[in-house]
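Q&A log
Question type: sequence-to-structure
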Amino acid sequence: MNEENQNTVLEDGNEKIARPQKIYLKDVSFESPQSPTIFTKEWKPGLDVEIDSQAQQIADDTFDVVLKITGTVTVEDNTAFLIEVHQAGIFVLKGFEPDTLKRVQNVFCLNTLYPYASAALSDLVTKGGFPSLMLPPMNFAAIYNQRLQQTQAASDGAASTQH
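Response status: OK
Response body:
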């Protein structure tokens, strides 16, 4: 199979394409506000991770998708480090209906970007003098479905209070 057809799906006779064109780091930040004293404390870290994303159309059938991961690690109620990575990709997404396009951006694109973001985070943390940070696998399909359900429940709730 050649590369051109790798991410092409024929559905009901309609060609659908989901293919990364470029993967890149858009923004990174690392802070260790308690160094060097944080290195003298017993390493029993607490980790808080926030994940967000955005997609923006940049040309016909071409989108810039950004996965934002922010991590805060604390030791004994002190911030050991704050880290943020904006891992981005330019994707060709062709032939999708609007609802399906949102799903592809929030599942396929984020699944593609996540390993790169995770590696960038781990590399920065290690270069900051801390043990490697290994993020768990993420199920972006489940996260997307949960957000859809929450949005639907919120709109159902808003509709019922207007009656």
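Response note: The helical segments are 98-127, 140-161.
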